[in-house]
Amino acid sequence: MKIAFDLTPIYDHLTGVERYNINITREIIIHHPENQYVLLFKNEVHKEFQSIAQQQNVQIVTVPACNKLLFIQWSLFKALRRIDADYYVFLSFTSPVMFKRGRIINAIHDLTCWDCPETIPTKMKYYYRYTYGVAAKNSWKLITVSKFSQKRICERYKLSEDKVPVVYDGLTNIFAKGYTYNPDLKNKYSLPNRYMLSLSTLEPRKNLQLLIRAYRDLIEEKKELPDLVLAGRQGWKLEEIVGDVSDSLKDRIHFTGFVDDEDLPQLYADAEVFIFPSKYEGFGLPVIEAMSQKTIVITSDAASLPEVAGTAGIMFSSDDIKALKDTICLFICMDDVEKERRKEQGLTFSHRFSWEMESGKLYKLLQPY
Fold this sequence. Notes:
By secondary structure, this protein is α/β, with parallel strands linked by helices. It has helices spanning 16-31, 68-81, 112-115, 122-138, 147-157, 173-176, 185-189, 208-220, 238-243, 264-270, 285-292, 305-309, 321-332, 336-350, 355-365; strands spanning 2-6, 36-42, 58-63, 87-90, 103-107, 141-143, 195-199, 227-231, 253-257, 273-276, 297-300, 314-316. The protein has 15 helices and twelve strands. The termini are close together.
């Protein structure tokens, strides 16, 4: 059996959808060496696949980078037409709209373009609406990352659940098996000694403005709080988020920028609490990453987050500043026994999500026809 994986999206900074692509693809190749694999990259083989690229059962195709829209819909399309495979798998973004050959498996992680369109640029809203609609027609299977997203995709595109199986995100080895402590981490990211953490791409859907306003209110109410660290790469409308940080809070709120993967476990572990106020998530990977490092999680109850956090997370009503403030105060007043109970519960719950197990679900779909 020959399987082609589109890995061109992992060329740039990695977010949840790129990590999903990397880990599912890698697990399938490692655990099923009897197959032939074609891996498509943008410009060059990504460092995560340097050793795998040397295997005799792996063929590498590099596609020269260009304008993002032209790259996907033309350059990638042309490269795919030259590949004869049994399955074509697209785990970050959907396949080119003109590509219809073979059994195509597309991943749609969420329906932000329909459910939360005000949080993305207008041109991207219409682009995703169109390409997702085409993918719903052209795909042999769609996969998605939560039961919440499965339900929304099936409703939107009038599909049955067996057409849209769920393949969850998982924990990478660095979270599941531990890490080497870096004493210079605080200097590297200019971290305070004590901090509450939020980590995501800095863009409107993550609702960081709500967190900043809640933090400001609590400081003004003389609550004793650690500093607030907002970690993650710059996204859309960053200036609006930064603009909500008043002069009086500039020494209390810290922006780290992009955080290297190897630093993430310690960043989570050193935080007193992880706060995830997102308005909408297909999955919400930072929630289980934080739990895996025995960090208490406060999260909104939006979209898939109750499914991902389970009873281990402390929930607040999405987009409700009073509810968020009350939840932070609840954490502040929590005694050590309750904190330890929450940490252990989160650790146990997070290990339900395994890349090996989830990749196995996808592989069951990839059977000879």
